[in-house]
Write a structure and sequence with these properties.
alpha+beta; Immunoglobulin-like; 3-stranded antiparallel beta sheet; 9 strands
Length: 201
């Protein structure tokens, strides 16, 4: 939900303190004080994770995925998506929106779209409805076992070649007309792909 929130058309907003998961039933009039020290500490640790070598970063992201209720994974996605928006504001304020169709056995569990402006393209892909995905309890919804033949159609995009997933740092081949969901969701059940990410890390 966080990825879709920050990449969909429109201006995203977020209540202070909800950068991490909060399952309490509150509204803006009766919120508790925000624990900024906790969030600063988490953000510092995520900054270290972002700058870690690939194997360490992937292992760290798996740890975030294995402990989703502490909120760090939501903060990671929020922080990385807002970073992409900050570095290319025109793409999100003036760019177009193209829904991408998913196919295959578990296609109804995938939401995907592209934002594009000029020659720049960002693709957001998110998994959904985990409870009915058929993955054993306790197993993360990633990789071939979870996604099988499910894929996202890219044939109506101008962009092709290789893109960087800004959430994992991986480079993904998107030169074909379809992107396997198992490739997009190899390490996390979300992906934020950008064509030229050299200056966006």
């Amino acid at each position: 939900m966080a990825l879709l929130h920050f990449t969909s058309p429109g201006v995203p907003d977020i209540y202070q303190g909800s950068e991490i998961g909060d399952l309490s039933l509150v509204d803006p009039d009766n919120r508790r004080p925000v624990d900024y020290a906790l969030r600063r500490g988490q953000l510092d640790s995520l900054d270290s994770l972002a700058n870690a070598p690939d194997p360490q970063r992937i292992a760290g992201l798996r740890a975030l995925l294995d402990t989703p209720h502490d909120g760090r994974l939501k903060m990671w996605v929020t922080w990385r998506a807002l970073g992409v928006r900050r570095r290319d504001p025109e793409l999100f304020s003036d760019g177009g929106y193209t829904p991408l169709e998913a196919g295959g056995t578990r296609s109804r569990h995938v939401v995907a779209f592209a934002r594009h402006h000029g020659k720049r393209t960002v693709i957001a892909i998110a998994a959904r409805m985990f409870a009915s995905l058929g993955v054993p309890v306790g197993e993360p919804p990633i990789g071939d076992r979870a996604w099988g033949d499910t894929r996202v159609a890219l044939s109506n995009l101008r962009s092709n070649g290789r893109m960087t997933d800004m959430l994992t740092g991986r480079t993904i081949d998107v030169s074909g007309s379809e992107l396997p969901a198992a490739s997009a969701f190899e390490h996390l059940p979300v992906a934020l792909l950008i064509a030229d990410a050299q200056n966006l890390a």
